[in-house]
Amino acid sequence: MWRRLRSALGRLLGSPAAFPGGGGRPPAGRGAMERAVVRCVPSEPKLSLRFVLPDGSARHMQRDQAEPLGRALARIATNAAKGRAKAAKKSKKARPEGGPAGEAAAAMAAAAAPAVRLFSRDGEAVAEEVPNAAAWQDGAVLQIGEARYRVERNPPALTELQLPRSLLAGFPVCPKVSAEFAAPQHCLFRWYRERRPAAGGEEEAAAAAAGGGGPAWVEAAAERVFTPSNALVGLRLKLRCTPGDGAQRYGLPREVESSGPVEAGPGACTFDSRHLYTKKVCGEGSLRAVSYNILADAYAQTEFSRTVLYPYCAPYALELDYRQNLLKKELAGYSADLICLQEVDKAVFADSLAPALDAFGLEGLFRIKEKQHEGLATFYRRDKFGLLSQHDVAFSEALRSDSLHRELCDKLAKYPLVQEKVLQRSSVLQVSVLQSTTDPSRKICVANTHLYWHPKGGNIRLIQIAVALSHIKHVACDLYPSIPIIFCGDFNSTPSSGTYSFINSGGIAEDHEDWVSNGEEERCNMPLSHPFKLLSACGEPAYTNYVGGFHGCLDYIFIDRNALEVEQVIPLPSHEEVTTHQALPSVSHPSDHIALICDLKWK
After folding, report:
1. Cβ neighbours of residue 261 under 8 Å, at least 6 residues apart?
2. CA-based end-to-end distance of the chain
3. Do 567 and 597 form a contact (C-beta atoms < 8 A)?
4. What is the mean pLDDT of residues 296-300?
5. Residues labelled catalytic
6. C-alpha triplet 534, 540, 542: angle, nearest 5°
7. What does pLDDT average to over the chain?
8. What is the pTM of this model?
């Protein structure tokens, strides 16, 4: 019985093998050994040790890193003796015909603690006074009686493996992979799909010919991201992931099965035709930028959204899992170098977007809004850019405490109603300084924001954008002199607004009509200026937001016209595509906004 248990546990922890002999040195031949897995992290007081005893029982020990090795070995010996005693009792029950002398001999053998030694990689016995942290090195050999174990210190290990709840045919399935001493790009992935249960098919005939029911799972692919075909509709998926560290070390595999079957996709989507322009990543000296308000789940899943804002949208198409399928396919297909997103739920970033876009070579940064569950995300292609620094700010906090904005704050103090409103807003600015991986002299400041939404909040948005541009000036002129900027976001401002005019022209007069956007009571008049020469890279589309009660251009990618120029603007979906299901979002479009995409190059 214990052999069967040991065999089963051995398959989890490594290949079981017994090596004869004892003495002071392990055998010269390395051979196959059981694994003794050690996890030892300097920041933690204890190390952990996992192995399977010769009796088949698994052991997981926690020992102080500073403890002398001898104490840990003594504990292992005690555990091994207990395991032997239990095995002897089971053996006695299984063979009651054994005589008293045989039982006594078995009991004595079980009670004797086996010799336990630890040998270094070069075969020398490790002294018992050596601290655990120094003793348990990778490649050492642990000997428990006649059994020997190869020590694996901090091997690659999976801490989390998840599949999305919703799987659609034709849409990429991106697992969430969290690992320790490993990286997802170095892991091995193997996908399986259920064997179709219907009778009479080729698979069933082959399984019957082989005898029995055949395997429940059929291998489908060996890649990190798997896109199920229409042929897999109705079948569940399984993923087997083996963690790796890029140095030819692999840990224990883990498997996860999908909670439901693959479902049929929606057919043609609004972004399919756009993907024809973005099949390849931009070449050297160019970059593709995307700005997109992806519609936070917190705003899509309310009674007001379902009945007033988006009554035309099928309820299932407002579900987060469904929209995430569309969104991940859309974003992956743009082959972008920079992606700036707004209305990103905190959990969506961590559990869905970051893992998915990581699989496509993009590194993600997240900044949550103050007192909200959603915020901003910036992704950059890691083989093109490295992150130099981050300079995120909340507008309200910057006005209160940053001396950069003291002059503006003093002006605003004259208008207490407006000041109070500005300081109550949760809007933030995400600023990331990136450096080219191929030309270190080439740096860029990427800013991302989502301004106040209210239709009568033009004066509030003017204050917010003044803070934003002042902060960007500090980063792009003072901290990193003369680096170009790309400023993306949902500015909630049409081309006729004061905010757009201010960004585009470099100044705004104190008598602009937007200073009284919410009536005379909230009037605030002040001239503003900024030093940048900014250009809307995608021009002024007829709309970037299209819902039942409104359509207009609210989103922009502003670029430094002195340093960057536009190579191409990816055409927006046609009006017919946008209105196929009346408005946005829809079964074929995941947001109420439309992504802006352009290819830029350095001058």
Report:
1. 167, 194, 233, 234, 235, 236
2. 74
3. no
4. 95
5. 490
6. 165
7. 90
8. 0.84
